[in-house]
Design brief:
Elements: H1 2-60, H2 68-98, H3 106-129, H4 133-162, H5 169-198, H6 206-237, H7 244-262, H8 266-284, H9 303-327, H10 332-361, H11 370-395, H12 402-429, H13 433-447
Helix pairs in contact: 1-2, 1-3, 1-12, 2-3, 2-4, 2-6, 3-4, 4-5, 5-6, 6-7, 6-10, 7-8, 8-9, 9-10, 10-11, 10-12, 11-12
The protein binds protoporphyrin IX containing FE.
Protoporphyrin IX containing FE (HEM) binds at residues 47, 50-51, 53-54, 57, 63, 71-72, 74-75, 78-79, 83, 209, 213, 335, 338-339, 342-343, 346-347, 410, 413-414, 417.
Length: 448
Amino acid sequence: MSTAVHIGSVQGETQDNALRIRNERRSQYLVTAFIVSGVLFMLLPGTFLGVWNLLNISEAHDASTLPLGWLQAHGQAQIFGWIGSFILGIGFYSLTKMQTGRKFPLVAGWWVWALWLAGISLRWGSGVTAWEWRVLLPLGSFLQCAAFLLFFISVRRHRTHTTSRRPEVWMQIVAASTITFLSTLMVNCALLVRQAWLGNSPAVPHLLDQQFVTLAVWGVLVPTIWGFNARWLPIFAGLQKPDGKRLLLAYVLSLLGIALTFFGEWLASGLVLMAAATVSVDALHVWERAVQPPKLLNIHSSFPFFLRVAYAWLLVSCVLALLAVPLDRAGGLWGASRHAITVGFVALMVFAIGQRILPAFCGMRILWSTRLMFWSMFLLSLGCLLRVSAEPLAYGGLWAPAWKVLPVSAIVEMTAVCLFALNLGATLWQPPAHLRSETKTSLSKGAA
Ligand code: HEM
């Protein structure tokens, strides 16, 4: 009797393991699909359109010559097409890692992917071409909402099944920014329905758009990074464990800062966001000495340095936003502040952490080239430095040669983005680490 029970439980365990491995493999395909689509969005509708915009602005010596719809389509492609796809992919990956049961929402995952991709493509295409924009613009944003809602339901259903403990601070912040992500998409949908109804072009009015960009950047991108940084920086960079209460304070301040922009209180919002950024640096111990050696296996040794540089860009962005309130001319200081945060903080952080974790998340692979990792981060920082210093001088008419620096900054940033895409693409192209070592072993056996 007891032998039969034992055999039964061993069979059950083997079945469970087989299911777990199958789930893991299937979820890796799904994550890879999100990452590859994110990279494609970053490259073509995001970066190439951004570079094209900047080259045209520099040639005309005037930012207002370009259709607003193109600028907004570029911003949407980067925030939702690139970073949004990465967030969804990593979200699904975390589900498989935390799961205790046999179920993984694979079908829902592929629906989310298809709806999300269709939504951001429609939103981008109709924004740039203005073709049938009164229908396609709101339809695109509606599909984005539907995709995210489905993702949200999958995550929530999973969470209630697996945990009853109070979640750690990093989880609370990631969960809160997921809710803000959903709210941001709903605001986007409302804005675009309003635009389709009342507007005469696909571009949302400038002020509303700026408030929306603040919501997307400070409500979604920045806190998501804080949340994952709180989880990963102590492990990967050897930093001291974060101060949870202070990090929550930074998060609450960022929400207050966003709310103030919607009341038109840009100076007060700038001050509060500056406080939020400073508190986050303190809470995450970013610039303090590491307490453990960083984990640098298979990545470039400059990784901890660039993480710290990213936080310097976050503060630079806040200082520029504060200067922009009384001093901005023709959007130069606002543009510089926006790119200090989107390129210097968000993109640099994704380049650093992404090349650290994504090879493993997408099927236990090893980063293709550590040197490319360094050059992508170095060139991105250099391009950002050129851009952020030249934009206020050029747009504000303060120093004419700065117009010549802007195209250089665009090309340097584009090179960085291409190197990042190449490194990730080549990493995903090669077989997983364990298969590579098996191939090597069998090759060397064959040679012997
Ligand atoms: C290759 C690098 C990039 C170039 C050349 C570029 C270029 C531009 C240009 C010319 C503008 C409009 C003028 C201005 O505000 O300065 C703009 C706006 C914007 N960019 Fe970028 N950009 C790049 C990377 C990024 C990245 C990585 C992100 C986000 C992760 C981003 C997000 C935005 C946003 C949100 C806007 C505002 C759009 C709006 O007004 O609705 N950009 N970019």
